[in-house]
């Protein structure tokens, strides 16, 4: 089994990032590396330039993301952790696959439609071909499984389509070049919402810092934010159905469940009939207990640029090695002469 996944580098990491993607990566690393599988995790910094960005912030965000991943449990000795920009094979393979990807396929991508909006003429070409780079990311390593959120499923299907068409067009039937990757969508792909508005995703760009729990927050800040979180006046219901129409209550119960590693139903069994005056301190303490060790490592590591760069350099070295054979075979299959 070979697991490959990427994440766009953002700064100001928060609970939503942790429960949404990072924690799942750590679990897969621990589960699959013990069974002889291999996990490659990378910062999708090449994808980041598909939208307007600030160069000085991209570098800082890339290093911060590495610090967060390592602090939360990604072990650079167990997983291969790197950034795309140090492995030119990603960009090379993208170009080679651009000959196989069809305009019509890319035109149907919902992320493209959402991000380009009404202004397609003004969108970058990189935004349009973003899914081809994503296909290259996974096909380059012959990934068998790709953990992603629900919103990336369509991109994964495109990667399979590209792989299949390439294999068909350029390979002998008994010697396909690319492995068709399977998406893995974590069952509880936790959608963590803002603490101020249960209908908006927890986000680093929310102007109110009270809306999110940052991975850098100390115990006091966490307790404060949970105490001030928006709720309703009702006590907690006995069943999950009782949370319908109560987005804030639903979110806090969901966070508790995700952090405790139990189902929302079992949280409600414990807290049925209790008000937020009782539930919030329990949630705050749980968050402090689970997040504090990671937060402490994160605050320290994010200052240590030398170590972060060394981690990335080592990961890129291994990734380049793994990528080389597939890239060479792709050039060859296309009839490109390389001496
Ligand atoms: N597009 C993904 C996201 O926004 C990030 C990503 C880039 C990715 N390349 C990938 C995810 C390859 C999985 C595999 O979440």
Apparent shape: globular
Let me know the CATH homologous superfamily of the largest domain: HUPs
Based on DSSP secondary structure assignment, what is the total number of beta strands?
Answer: 5
| Strand ordering within the main sheet | 1-2-3
Radius of gyration based on Cα positions = 22 Å
Helix-strand sequence: EHEHHEHHHHEHEHHHHH
Helix-strand makeup class: mainly alpha
Q: How many structural domains can be distinguished in the coordinates?
A: 2
Name the ligand types.
tryptophan
How far is the first residue's CA from the last residue's CA?
Answer: 33 Å
Count of individual helical segments: 13
- Strand fraction equals 5-15%
Fill in the CATH topology of the largest domain.
Answer: Rossmann fold
**Largest sheet composition:** 3 strands, parallel
- Oligomer, anyone? single chain
Mean pLDDT: 96
Unreliable residue runs: none
CATH class of the largest domain: Alpha Beta
